[in-house]
Amino acid sequence: MKHEQATHSNCENMSCSICNLWVCSMCGGAEGSLTTDCPCYQVPYVMRQLVYAGAIDFVVDKWVTKDSMIEIDIRGKK
To answer: The whole model's pTM is what?
Structure first.
């Protein structure tokens, strides 16, 4: 599923993180921590950091490691 950009109205703050960054309203990923596909639920911070580091990704309804594309579950088991 595609990510959905978080938005809000009537913002006049020029340094607003919502207006200036691409943040997904469903998973919470932002720019470098966006996965290929959206898991459609809030992803824990630690997992977003792994996405940002390039260690994992969410592709076609499953979490995978980037190096081997081995499917993993969100509890860290293979």
So the answer is: 0.72
